[in-house]
C-alpha cells in the first residue's frame, strides 16, 4: 500500500489507530531496546499499523521465533501481509482481546503494543490487559508505547513491575511502559 493510502487509513480510522503519524525509527529502536529477543520463541505485537514496529521486531528476532501481529484494520493487514510474507510472521485481522485464541495455550516471551488504550472502551481494554498478563511468560515483558503517563496506573492493576521512560524523538513524544 502506498504511503498516501496508509496515511489515509490512519486518519480515516483515527478512533482505532489513535495516532496522528506512524512510529518513528528512533521510537521503534528505543522501545525495542527494552526487549530481549535472544531466545524469544513467541513474540506478539498488538497494533501492527504500517509495520514500522513489526519491521524492527523482524530485524531483531531469532530465525526460529514466531511473531503474531494483531491488527483490526483489514487494509493495514493486507499491507502487512505484503511486507512480511515470511512463514514465521502471522498477521491476524482481529482484536487483541482475542490473543488467547491464537496462542493455543502457549505463553509469549514478549508482547509489544502500540494500541491506543485511551480510545478503547473500558471493558475491551480490561480484557486486553488481563489476557496480555495471562499470555506473557513469567520471565517475559509487556512493552507499551502511549501518549499518557496516566495509563501506568491502569497497567499497575495487572503488572506489578512497571518501568517508565519517555522519548521526544517521535511526534508526538511518547512514554514507553515496560511491564512484567
User: How would you sum up the major sheet?
Assistant: 7 strands, mixed
Mean pLDDT: 90
Order of helices and strands: HHHEHEHEHEHEHEE
> Could you name the CATH homologous superfamily?
Vaccinia Virus protein VP39
Walk me through the structure.
- The protein has 8 helices and 7 strands, in the order αααβαβαβαβαβαββ.
- With 180 residues, the protein is of the alpha/beta class.
- The protein has a single domain, classed as Vaccinia Virus protein VP39 (Rossmann fold, 3-Layer(aba) Sandwich), CATH 3.40.50.150.
- A 7-stranded mixed β-sheet has the order 3-2-1-4-5-7-6.
- α3 crosses α4.
- About 3% of the residues have low confidence.
Keywords:
transferase; seven-stranded mixed sheet; methyltransferase; Phospholipid N-methyltransferase; SAM-dependent_MTases_sf; Rossmann fold; 36% helix; alpha/beta; methyltransferase activity
Brief characterization of the structure:
One of its GO terms (biological process) is methylation. The protein is α/β, with parallel strands linked by helices and 180 residues long. 36% of the residues lie in helices and 24% in strands.
Blueprint (SSEs and pairs):
Layout: H1 3-12, H2 14-17, H3 25-32, E1 42-46, H4 52-60, E2 66-70, H5 74-83, E3 89-92, H6 99-103, E4 108-113, H7 122-135, E5 136-146, H8 151-155, E6 162-167, E7 174-179
Parallel strand pairs: 1-2, 1-4, 2-3, 4-5
Antiparallel strand pairs: 5-7, 6-7
Protein name: Phospholipid N-methyltransferase
InterPro entries: SAM-dependent_MTases_sf (IPR029063)
Organism: Belliella pelovolcani
Amino acid at each position: 500500500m502506498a504511503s498516501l493510502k496508509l496515511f489515509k487509513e490512519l486518519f480515516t480510522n483515527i478512533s482505532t489507530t489513535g495516532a496522528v503519524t506512524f512510529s518513528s525509527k528512533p521510537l521503534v529502536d528505543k522501545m525495542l531496546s527494552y526487549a530481549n529477543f535472544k531466545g524469544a520463541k513467541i513474540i506478539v505485537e498488538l497494533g501492527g499499523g504500517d509495520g514500522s514496529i513489526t519491521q524492527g521486531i523482524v530485524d531483531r528476532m531469532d530465525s526460529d521465533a514466531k511473531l503474531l501481529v494483531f491488527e483490526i484494520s483489514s487494509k493495514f493487514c493486507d499491507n502487512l501481509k505484503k511486507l512480511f510474507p515470511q512463514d514465521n510472521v502471522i498477521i491476524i485481522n482481529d482484536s487483541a482481546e482475542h490473543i488467547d485464541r491464537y496462542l493455543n495455550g502457549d505463553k509469549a516471551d514478549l508482547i509489544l503494543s502500540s494500541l491506543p488504550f485511551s480510545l478503547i472502551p473500558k471493558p475491551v481494554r480490561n480484557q486486553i490487559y488481563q489476557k496480555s498478563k495471562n499470555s506473557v511468560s513469567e520471565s517475559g515483558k509487556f512493552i507499551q508505547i502511549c501518549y499518557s503517563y496516566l495509563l501506568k496506573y491502569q497497567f499497575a492493576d495487572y503488572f506489578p513491575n512497571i518501568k517508565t521512560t519517555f522519548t521526544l524523538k517521535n511526534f508526538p513524544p511518547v512514554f514507553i511502559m515496560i511491564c512484567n
